[in-house]
Amino acid sequence: MIKVEDLRKTYRAGLVEVPALRGVSFEVERGEYVAIVGPSGSGKSTLMHLLGCLDVPSGGRYMLDGVEVSTLGEDELARVRNRKIGFVFQGFHLLPRLTALENVELPLVYRGVDANTRREKAVRALEMVGLGARVQHYPNELSGGEQQRVAIARAMVGEPILLLADEPTGNLDSRTGAEVLDLFQRINDAGCTVVMVTHDMTAASRAKRLLKIRDGVLEGDERV
Amino acid sequence: MIKVEDLRKTYRAGLVEVPALRGVSFEVERGEYVAIVGPSGSGKSTLMHLLGCLDVPSGGRYMLDGVEVSTLGEDELARVRNRKIGFVFQGFHLLPRLTALENVELPLVYRGVDANTRREKAVRALEMVGLGARVQHYPNELSGGEQQRVAIARAMVGEPILLLADEPTGNLDSRTGAEVLDLFQRINDAGCTVVMVTHDMTAASRAKRLLKIRDGVLEGDERV
Ligand SMILES: Nc1ncnc2c1ncn2[C@@H]1O[C@H](COP(=O)(O)OP(=O)(O)OP(=O)(O)O)[C@@H](O)[C@H]1O
Ligand SMILES: Nc1ncnc2c1ncn2[C@@H]1O[C@H](COP(=O)(O)OP(=O)(O)OP(=O)(O)O)[C@@H](O)[C@H]1O
Ligand SMILES: [Mg+2]
Ligand SMILES: [Mg+2]
User: Fold this and answer.
1) Among protein residues, the one whose CA lies closest to atom 6 of ligand 2
2) Rounded CA gap, A209 and A205, in Å?
3) Which residues form the ABC transporter domain (chains A, B) (predicted)?
4) CB-based contacts of A113: which residues, under 8 Å, 6+ apart?
5) Taking CB atoms and an 8 Å cutoff, what residues of chain A touch B199?
6) Which residues from chain B sit within 8 angstroms of residue A14, using beta carbons?
7) Measured between CB atoms, does B185 come within 8 Å of chain A?
8) Residue A13's pLDDT is what?
9) pLDDT tens profile A133-182
10) Which end of chain B has the lower number of beta carbons within 10 A, N or C?
11) pLDDT band, residue A224 (cuts 50/70/90)
């Protein structure tokens, strides 16, 4: 499903170059549940953005479902992101002028799903993360952990085949976090490939494989 | 230092009322190190905003250093916030058009500190959280954990007497998180009162007292 070869990403901040990813190679089969761990600043979110087709690498190759992602045009990339991938951002990135419900409906709006069906699916996704009573709240009327859960609901509402979750439990107490991890387990059992960046070892232990990143390179790849 | 009596806060979201804090009472002596724990949505950040004079309660009283906070005018509140309190927000709230260095200098700008002194202090604060090499980066050029650490540096640069930290290690790996907790311990030893909301039990165990919040009320207060 995912094949990454010598993947590289260098940022420029002013005149300085930051080599965030310096040649990472690995494969992920369909249906796997992978955790990515490593120190702050080691390149994890950078890797996730490349896997989610949200950014382009500076070097190397990324094959998603057998297709070389760099050969895809803008429209096709947008289509892949919308139909195949669910992305939970480390910083949530909810739209501030939309309610929780409208934020979760958004991927289905882009897909052209009718208003009734998408409202129904969005409500169900929010109920699955325990936010049935918060659907009409705006992001600034939600706690940190509630915003995080809206981001999770939005990533799952379109039933993606690949869920990319960047620090999905960082703002959740252990019980709410466990509920989210149970949810990830359920969709993984249903066939969704899950790749999760986490600093939380409890969350990492729920995965079946651990990729360790340090300083932009892969320093460990273990089946657990 | 802190005395809270039957503190209440009710939000309005559209036509709905959300009683986020429903009568909380406790005292914190100077120099204490307190952790606040509880489920997502239980009222912790709401309480922190009241303690940080960033919001006004709907009921009850808050005395900071013997002064009833509701009797203070806007300018005085701003002065208290700037001179006495360091606040690490759950969502960081860095200014996007300022570099890490400029963000950390901001509390000293408001205080009228000269440019050389504040630059020196801001650089030192950033070095203390391991970001000496990132001072010229803008927030969107920083990893999640780096943004969190800039927010921590900014809260500490003015040498506050009260540090309020809302989920300060949520985006940090265990080692970087431990370094931040060591830093909090050092300023606590130096006399700063520390109140930290956390979902991380390792962080909570570094405090000497634990306040447990559930559904807007205090359900536990233990010395550890
Ligand atoms: N501006 C607001 N308007 C309406 N409701 C709000 C507002 N801000 C917060 N709330 C609600 O008040 C409750 C308490 O929020 P608070 O941010 O204090 O929770 P918390 O304990 O910090 O949660 P977390 O651990 O998820 O950060 C939540 O259920 C939230 O939905
Ligand atoms: N747009 C950018 N411009 C310049 N440097 C960047 C940019 N984005 C990220 N960086 C740098 O690249 C490095 C890797 O960032 P990345 O966000 O991938 O780290 P991370 O492993 O996700 O860290 P964390 O655990 O703190 O979230 C960091 O040192 C960061 O400062
Ligand atoms: Mg990251
Ligand atoms: Mg909170």
Assistant:
1) B141
2) 9
3) 2-224
4) A121
5) 145, 171-174, 177
6) 136
7) no
8) 82
9) 999 999 999 999 999 999 999 999 999 999 999 999 999 999 999 999 99
10) C
11) confident
Interchain CB contact of A88 with B (< 8 Å): no
Q: Which of A12, A16, A40, A167 to mutate to test the interface with B (most CBs of B within 10 A)?
A: A40
Q: Do A40 and B173 touch (CB under 8 A)?
A: yes
| pLDDT at residue A70, rounded to an integer | 87
Q: In this structure, which residue's CA is closest to atom 8 in ligand 2?
A: B141
Tell me the C-alpha distance between B47 and A214, whole Å: 37
- What CATH number does the domain containing B42 carry? 3.40.50.300
Is residue B54 a contact partner of residue B61, using CB atoms and an 8 Å limit? no
What distances in angstroms separate CA A23 from CA A9, A218, A219, B142, one per listed residue?
8, 8, 11, 20
Using one digit for the tens of pLDDT, what is the confidence trace for A4-49? 999 999 998 878 899 999 999 999 999 999 999 999 999 999 999 9
Task: State the pLDDT at residue A189.
Answer: 96
d(CA B182, CA B179): 5
**Residue in the block written with tokens 């899950």:** A194
- Angle between helix axes B115-128 and B100-110 (nearest 10 degrees) is 130
Residues of chain B with pLDDT under 50: none
User: pLDDT at position B108, please?
Assistant: 97
Chain B positions in Cβ-Cβ contact with residue A173 (cut-off 8 Å) = 37-40, 199
Total domain count, chain A: 1
Residue A23 in tokens: 């040649």
Size of interface A-B (CB pairs under 8 A): 87
CA distance A146 to A159: 21
Q: Any CB–CB contact under 8 A between B29 and chain A?
A: no
Count of CB atoms situated within 10 Å of the CB of B61: 14
pLDDT digits (tens, 9 = 90+) for B13-71: 888 899 999 999 999 999 999 999 999 999 999 999 999 999 999 999 999 988 999 88
| pLDDT at residue A49, as a whole number | 97
Query: What value does the mean pLDDT of chain B take?
Result: 95
Domain that holds residue A204: 2-223
